[in-house]
## 1
Amino acid sequence: MISLNVNGKQHQIDADPNMPLLWAIRDILGLTGTKYGCGAAQCGACTVHMNGEAVRSCVTKLNRAAGQQIVTIEGLSANNNHPLQLAWNELNVPQCGYCQSGQLMSAAVLLRENLNPTDQDIDDAMSGNICRCGTYQRIRAAIHKAAHIQQEAAKI
Amino acid sequence: MSAPLSSIATTKRVVLFTMVSFITVIIMQSFKTETSLKNDDTKPVKDSIGSVKAFMSVYKVLMSPRCMNCHPSGEAPLQGDDSHIHTMNIKRGTDGKGMYAARCSNCHQNENTAGLHMPPGNPKWGLPPAKMKMVFQGRTPHQLALQILDPKQNGGRTKAQLIDHMANDELVGWGWHPGDGRTLPPMSRSAFVAQVKLWIAKGAYAPSAN
Ligand code: FES
Ligand code: FES
């Protein structure tokens, strides 16, 4: 049995310790917001947080994830109200949407570590998240907007 | 009169004998010191030609993709046997472990992920930190030898610590266990370490600048 903590909930999973975390999240826990793109750490669609870092769950095995704090897109905020989700909604960022939970999870790490990211900071954080629909310009604009929302919220 | 005279002569002979013995002992001692220095095999024999020759073997390994790819001249790591710049705009960051959502260990596991073109891995995966970049790429043998020996540029390592790093560091060791589809450095790790030791034992000479 492998003990997994996902979105604050403890789960006991009967699975091979070499199983990719992504499989367990989607197929065993039924949290299908996290997507499978490449399975080779090349696209970022499967990005989740492990102890706050934006790991790629397709190459992270269960034995590495066991006992760690995992957060998926379903757990990014309580009411879909993370500043990034608000900005994403406002700017209609997604096209097909397939890459977007990975984009959001990566952007969340950027915004936590850098309250006012420049275009260069966005490039440095986000270049590993591929969008086949090419929504990059909207993603960039939305991250700037989210930073603004976050700063305004901090003032209140 | 004769008794005092003979006594003086005896005294003179004794003094002369003592002086001669003393000088002889000093001369012998000096030779002895010379000889023991030469025969002391704990003292390394300096040999600039042998030392440089050993370093050139070390250099070939350090400049192989398995070592050089994480010792780039720029801010991005390199990938593959052709040492192309890492895709995804990956950067060293301050601690050498990447930036924001692009931290090395987000993709690189504690071990190689199986399969061609899958991320290689090691618990210490990363580049040298920003304040101590230890660049290999583009360095001549002369430059690299001096850089490796300089504690201000080598992470504060003594020569003994350099040998230990090359011989025992697990991330250095990854170079010889690079996973599927990656070529090995041009000699075994033990042969490499032997050349590092030889380079240092023979005087740690840097190849000439030209
Ligand atoms: S599915 Fe994990 S990076 Fe593409
Ligand atoms: S929105 Fe379609 S892949 Fe990004």
Note: Residues A 36-39, 41-46, 56, 58 surround FE2/S2 (inorganic) cluster (ligand 1) (CB under 6 Å).
## 2
Amino acid sequence: MTWRRTLATARRVLEQLRHDPRTIGLIIVVPTALMALLAWILTDADFHKYGPPLLGIFPMLVMFLVTSVATLRERTSGTLERLLSMPMGKGDFVFGYAVAFSILAVIQALVVAGVSFLLLGLEVRGSAWLVVLVAVVDGLTGTALGLFVSAFARTEFQAVQFMPVALIPQLLLCGLIVPTDELPRVLEWISWLLPLTYAFDAMQHVAMNPTPDTRFWIDLGVVAAMAVALLAAGAATLRRRTP
Amino acid sequence: MASGGTTPGVAAVSVAGLTVVRGTVTAIDAISFDVPQGEVTGLLGPSGCGKSTLMRAIVGVQIVASGDVTVLGAPAGSPGLRSRVGYVTQAPSIYVDLTVRGNLRYFATILGAPDDAVEQVLDDVDLRGEADRLVGQLSGGQRSRVSLASALLGSPDLLVLDEPTVGLDPVLRRDLWALFHRLADAGTTLLVSSHVMDEASRCDRLLLMRDGHLLADGTPAELLARTGSSDIESAFLSLVEGGAA
Ligand SMILES: Nc1ncnc2c1ncn2[C@@H]1O[C@H](COP(=O)(O)OP(=O)(O)O)[C@@H](O)[C@H]1O
Ligand SMILES: [Mg+2]
């Protein structure tokens, strides 16, 4: 792995996105529109309750999908195979994507949070900037998960199959539908292995508490550590040889 | 079939007892041959006979069942080979949402190629006029030339080209074959596949394949003499029918 190749890859991914306004729209507009929809369908009280956690979940979902599709295209087009036959580190590929998409995650979080707080009237007890911070880390985690899943897949078909498998259990177990401590014991244990659970907990914490306590920072640290671990695992499992 | 040919100097590629299974198909069945250095070797055979699979094994991106593939003195796929072997897949593997130059600049950085390499290969494949167009707006033939140009960037010692001239107009096809021979004259080894038998006459050596097996290995003249045929297509037929006896 070299900085030169990692950064060249990040720049290349951003340059591709520049020619692909629809994907940028998907990253920025879709989570914002979903928040607007929530504001519209929920009562004020419910919006203040569910709005913040979803403001963390939407970026993660969208970044997961965009990253998965981008890397799937890289597989389908044969460019991944070409890169891996070149003196390209597996880490260059994975971290190059991560750098490019973390820039987008920052823009995304600023827009979604900005619109939610300034136009949709979202309110939290804690700092709005912490909400932005959690949303950025969540977006990055979505990217890391997308990269890991596509690296883990051996074929295009597997990559598509893994997408819902990586996503749906997290949504069911993160605490959004049933608080994690009310889940059956085994499911509760599983939920503490999934990044979305910590992301949800952190966001809920900012929504309810004026100042962040240790648990908030632990949550955030765990999500960030999981993102880094997923990226490293993605780089480690990417295979130069395929069937 | 074992090759009786002598290999002058060192072989650029040496394949020994290679077998590759893809899904349920034995795509390559116990194949052995050598590719001499500094020549254009054609890998000819009908669609589905295993050309792409064999090339993938040589480049080191194919999981193989058994056998040895040695490339430029090292096992295929060794890290040290990655900057010495250029590979062009059958379908153009380039970014459609980048310009031609954007693609080449990126691959040049990955290969650590010098700055002037991009302009050089644009001339080699005659795409200077399209350099700033998005690849997505180019024709299929132009895309495959961008893909070829990307592999030329690092001046590799071995070029593995999977059907690089398919679908190109005859003038371009002639120009590319001229380029391949210029590269070979400068010492590059080229392995070029095609399912079109009439490209055989443009190669220094031929590997004829069918159904995962190697039918023949030699110069075009040797193959014609051995089979008593007037063209490679009939030589192929006589090898298929003779092989059954
Ligand atoms: N990804 C794959 N999975 C399973 N079988 C494959 C795959 N690719 C090719 N094959 C099979 O391997 C054999 C050789 O294919 P290939 O090497 O692509 O031939 P060629 O390049 O000569 O047309 C064929 O029988 C083909 O169906
Ligand atoms: Mg093929």
Note: Chain B has a mean pLDDT of 91.
## 3
Amino acid sequence: MNAQRSNIGLAVVGWLVALIMFFPILWMVLTAFKTEQTAFSTTPEFLFSPTLESFRTALAQGAGYWHYAFNSFFTAMVSTLLGLALAVPAAFAMAFYPSKRTDFTLVWMVSTKFIPAVGVLIPIFLIYKSLGLIDNDWGLIMLFTAMNLPIMVWMVYSYFRDVPKDIVEAADIDGASTMQTMFRVILPLALPGLASTGLLALILAWNESFWSLTMTDHNAATLAVFIASFKSAEGLFWAKMSAASVLTVTPIVVLGWFAQRQMVRGLTFGAVK
Amino acid sequence: MAVVELKNVVKRYGGGLTGKAARSEEAPAVDDFNLVTEDGEFVVLVGPSGCGKSTTMRMIAGLEDNTEGEIRIGGRDVSDVAARDRDIAMVFQSYALYPHMSVFENMAFSLRLKKAPKSEIDQRVNEAASILDITHLLDRKPRALSGGQRQRVALGRAIVRQPQVFLMDEPLSNLDAKLRVDMRAEIVKLHRKLGVTTFYVTHDQTEAMTMGQRIVVMRDGRIQQIDTPNALYARPANMFVAGFIGTPSMNFMKMRVGDDTRSLKGETARFRAGDAFTGDLLDSHRGQEVWVGIRPEHLQHHEGDAGALENGLSGTVDVVEPLGSVTMVQLEIDGHRITAQLEGDTRARSGDTITLTCESARLHLFDVVSEQALARQPVESAATA
Ligand SMILES: Nc1ncnc2c1ncn2[C@@H]1O[C@H](COP(=O)(O)OP(=O)(O)OP(=O)(O)O)[C@@H](O)[C@H]1O
Ligand SMILES: [Mg+2]
């Protein structure tokens, strides 16, 4: 009886928290279907006649949604692949050939994330400027890769550490070279982990706004810039901005939802013992 | 098939330290290990947990470098040879099967790496599978197998290699008691059939005794004795081996060598050593204390008059454990806890005072300080009888 009641209580609290967290997103979606006038109204309105007007504007030729979307996709994708290509060997070395300084190196790498991005804005801006990397896709890709790399190394490292040492040694004795062990034994076993790491990096890069806004103008501009463009000198367009935001988050949410199912772990079960 | 030689092999886990710093650290995990196998021999490494069995095995495998000494496989010094080039196969306690590969692929993996022709791979995997009776499992993934089946696959993976040496590190310890006994016999049969030099690690002395052609008893990284199962049982080199080999364990009592050097006296217990010991050894311990070891199965219940006995010890029965064919009886004699293995239908009951007797040829004597065996029984027949 009591347990049941407290279960219901927990469920209510859970729902409340979820609702509070979800509300801004809901509000964004609702606003996207409003006219600019209703969007601006100070009395919140839940019931209104929805319009696709804002979406139409956002997707119109001149707005260039597809240009920004392509940049977002391209930079997020390439930086993720590049990140994995760097993180996998780094994590491999640290997980399977640790040295005395491995732990320190890991902590040090992650500690670089403690610095706020704005702290290195000026030097990076100046370097990029002299290298001609401002408003350049590849400039952004390098930033995204560098930004995600510590977390990616850390994640891949922990997935590699989950691979039982015995299995790696068994491959060694079976005659596998380091490369063969990595590609034929460790990577297949760590695949779900690599997928999660890749997905996280993709989401972080896709949602990145600080560098996108400061280091690009138009050529390399991503959807973050697209959203921001609805806050212009002529005024703030809540409804259009919301529509742009919806158009921005939808692809990544859909991707995340599909990918989640692929990432159920359990491959290692039954190998050892 | 090959002779494996270990000469003065030492292993120190220095925690990354090298040179003097490592040397002065704690005791080595393996210290001065010397062994030369015969070609095709089945050698068992046995000893309590942490005595360095796995470390020795891993050095032979090449998974661990030896700090000092020399390891040869088939005459070749393998110090600088990587594990993958040593032509050995290892069966892990955890089985260490590749979870993402089918049983077939698990067994075929080493051959694929060698780029063996497909027909040869098929043939060798199928042959090994049929020896181990796992042909019907070839398409399964390891997670769909029982513990015993995984064990067989792990063995199969080793057999397919046709290696020079098999290394098995407690391969049966994850199996239940009955399966262990079955697999034990099967591994012995397999060894007889393949004739490959095999190192087998266990901490179970029964496993060691039943499987090993020679047994290496280890303790704290040092070899205590290397011998055949019968010799270990009959002539243990020291008290550790004497207590470790044989179930239940050997009883030990402190007794004094009489001035006549022919008798041993405890508070109440007494033995006439007779001709079973070389006179010299007892001479040198005249009037001194020695440890006397008696195996429980060598004690007999003496139901007659105790006074007339030359070899006798009496005490009050504490615990009686009937096991069917035999009954284990525990008594307190002269301050020592003594276990005797009596007939199944013994009439000894808890609280009874009984007298036990033992042939003097069955006694083992050890120095009280060094704990080394003093006088090995010269009577061979006593050992094997
Ligand atoms: N990687 C390591 N680093 C440091 N010390 C180690 C390492 N591996 C083993 N040791 C130490 O070496 C000694 C021997 O260990 P080993 O694993 O060889 O024992 P074992 O006889 O196989 O024991 P068990 O029956 O428990 O498996 C132990 O004291 C252990 O703590
Ligand atoms: Mg071990």
Note: The CA atoms of residues 134 and 252 of chain A lie 26 Å apart.
